[in-house]
Write a structure and sequence with these properties.
alpha/beta, 8-stranded mixed beta sheet, about 15% strand
């Protein structure tokens, strides 16, 4: 039995992943953005070990979430599932995963939810561009972060997942990809003992390694992103390449 935490688990892929893990008797800690969503989530997932509340757009709330998670002891896996397609893209899609990665005791496995759209994303030129980044940019930055974290935490399996364009609230009901396959890869990477799942710095689609945008390995971009995240949050990833 593994102990797993999933961000953004009140609906969509995060909720489906939590349900599947609980059905397999794993210990699952879930997350909601506000009190009402947390109340609904407790009713939906009565077997969850904890329901934690934090607005991931709010830096202080994300820092508090990290502290609360550490009170549960070390996790086997953390799935950074939460994401938005508009609004405060940098804070939710990039900075919150950075703060949580830096602030939570490092687990055995880290999974970041990317997107095929990361391949059309661009690096920030400076912090003034943060309010204007696109969804593709945010997913590129997140995947860039994943590759950096994989290098500084060599004893942790750190990977990114493209869940596909699936029929969730974000994807829309006409989305063409398989919803079940959209969340199964996260579960597999978080819990499987198969050799294919026990890798790091990789990018997956439907349990198969795919070739990500080559710039996710750009160390200059990585160092710049880490510096921006540190400046925006006041939180430091203590290891260096």
């Amino acid at each position: 039995m593994a102990k797993i935490f999933i961000t953004g688990s009140s609906d969509g892929l995060g909720l489906l992943a939590a349900k599947a893990l609980l059905s397999q008797d794993h210990e699952v800690c879930v997350h909601a953005r506000n009190e009402q969503r947390a109340k609904d989530l407790k009713a939906e997932l009565p077997n969850a070990s904890a329901v934690l509340i934090a607005d991931l757009a709010n830096i202080d709330e994300v820092k508090q979430l990290a502290k609360e998670l550490n009170s549960f002891g070390r996790f086997d896996g953390i799935i950074h599932n939460a994401g938005i397609s508009s609004g405060e893209l940098f804070n939710v899609n990039v900075l919150a995963p950075y703060i949580l990665t830096a602030g939570i005791e490092t687990p055995n496995r880290l999974i970041y939810l990317s997107s095929s759209m990361h391949k059309s994303g661009s690096m920030l030129k400076n912090e003034a561009e943060i309010p204007n980044i696109s969804y593709s940019d945010s997913k590129f930055l997140l995947t860039l972060l994943m590759n950096y974290v994989a290098k500084i935490y060599p004893e942790t399996y750190v990977n990114a997942v493209d869940p596909g364009w699936v029929p969730t609230k974000m994807g829309g009901q006409s989305a063409p990809d398989d919803l079940q396959k959209g969340y199964e890869t996260q579960l597999w990477l978080a819990t499987s003992e198969e050799d294919a799942a026990k890798v790091s710095g990789k990018y997956f689609f439907h349990q198969q390694q795919q070739k990500p945008y080559s710039e996710i390995t750009n160390t200059d971009f990585q160092q710049k992103l880490i510096a921006i995240c540190k400046n925006q949050s006041g939180v430091e990833l203590t290891k260096t390449i």
